[in-house]
Amino acid sequence: MSSRRTRQRSAVLRVLTGCQDFVSAQELHALLAAESVPIGLTTVYRTLRHLEATGGVDVVRDDAGERLYRPRPADGHRHYLICRRCGRSRPVDSEVVERWAERIGTDTGFAAVEHTVELTGVCADCQSTADEGGPPPCHREPARGLARGCAS
Q: How far apart, in whole angstroms, are the C-alpha atoms of residue 49 and residue 55?
């Protein structure tokens, strides 16, 4: 895949950057369609794979194994704590994990060591609604499955 900047790639980046939490390729495609951006789902997936390969996004998997994407901050790779009920994500200080992964590589003689750390829990908002017997204060609209935290 070439690294040239197309209108479609620019649109994917713009909408993805407007999302506060992780979003799936299908959610991203639906947001683009809601803006009447003519783009195929295959192009969205291809663009996300390119962004992942070039370090432009952080990727996690949901409970069903679907890949979810979030723009990577300029200062690099981060780890996130993700609410299992509503999908809200928060970056966490993970310097100790980074040092550990680096030390494992050094100790074993491996180079270019990569790692994946997934932290999940239940956020304070979801805990309070669970205590009250209500549904989670979801950032996703159940009818459409779209992240509410996305600007369109």
A: 10
CA atoms of 28 and 13, how far apart (whole Å) = 10
* Run of H or E including 58: strand 57-61
pLDDT in tens, 24-78: 999 999 999 999 999 999 999 999 999 999 889 989 888 788 999 999 888 777 8
In this prediction, residue 132 has a pLDDT band, given cuts at 50, 70 and 90, of low
Element (H, E) at 70: strand 67-71
Nearest C-alpha neighbor of 74 from the set 48, 47, 56: 56
Instruction: Write the CA distances from 73 to 41, 55, 86, integer angstroms.
Output: 25, 10, 22
pTM of the model: 0.69
**Residue 140, H or E segment:** strand 140-141
